[in-house]
Amino acid sequence: MKRREYLTHMLAGTGFFTPLVKGRAPTEFSLRYVLSSALYGDLPLDQVLAQVKASGASGIDIWRKVHATHREQISAMGDEAFQELLKKHNTRMHISTCYPLGPFGLDQEIAWVKKNGGKMTVCATRSMGKVNPTGEQAKIQVKAFFKKLKPHVEVAQKHGVLMAFENHGNAMLHSPDSMRYFAEFNPDPRHVGIAFAPHHLQSFGNDMPAQMISELGNEHIPFIYFQEYGIGSKKRVDKETELEQLPGRGTLDYIPIVKALKKINFTGLAEIFMHPTPRGIPMLPTAKAITQEVNKSRSHVETCLNKVNG
Predict the structure, then answer these.
(1) Integer Cα distance of 256 and 258 in angstroms
(2) Assign residue 132 a region: left if phi > 0, alpha if psi is -120 to 50, beta otherwise?
(3) What are the tens digits of pLDDT across the range 198-235?
(4) What DSSP string runs through 240-261?
(5) Distance CA 89, CA 91 (A)
(6) C-alpha distance from residue 3 to each of 7, 213, 261, 265 (Å)
(7) 204 touches 162 (CB < 8 A)
(8) For residue 294, what is the enclosing H or E element?
(9) pTM of the entire structure?
């Protein structure tokens, strides 16, 4: 069995990275969604967890300050109370998104994720030199990154948790070159992967997101953001303009993206996402209103997927 086929088989075999088939024949490709708590800002966690199933998601992605307060809310109530809330709403935690901790500060969070039934952490990388490296500089930085990450990979292996790192501006993991080297030198794709953000690749060409999905393959992409670039992520604008960050409201063509995901038999998690401005506030005044917008965006992605499956 080829390495890519083997890794895909192993990932699917965990039972966590299995697509959620809903309203489709078993032979059709489908996506498994996770709900981002960041969209709900500082709303009570109980209200947010009540929206997981309503949003078509299979679990929650817990965010912390400055993007939300739900990790802090859990710390205040305690893990047992958090687990009771998960049971109350018949859902589970999938991810802890923890950008403030950085790639080398995840050890305790990895243990916490495991304790609470999660399988993944998400944050950005840090530059090991100049930001946004390309070419040979990207190769050098990726090697240095993985050398420094080694003890933290061992912690992730111990707990069976995957560390996913977003391709993001002003970071090491940004350019297509850096992403290719990341995959080439990744010491353990079962515990280290890319939190794939297509909109951060648009500056390299509109075809680049789908191309990189195809190149990286399922084993290196355990998670994907469905998000548009929008000026509302940077400054205060009217609400309709701010919501242009959501799928279906901007310029990102999702048909090639979901076609590429189908091609690699993507078995990871997909997240509808945007940034409210200022950070930390709910995307809209009520949890139900936020979920309605999430479902509109999910419907757009599903429409694209139906065209690909059709």
Answers:
(1) 6
(2) left
(3) 999 999 999 999 999 999 999 999 999 999 998 999 99
(4) HHHGGGSTTSSS--HHHHHHHH
(5) 6
(6) 6, 17, 19, 15
(7) no
(8) helix 287-309
(9) 0.92
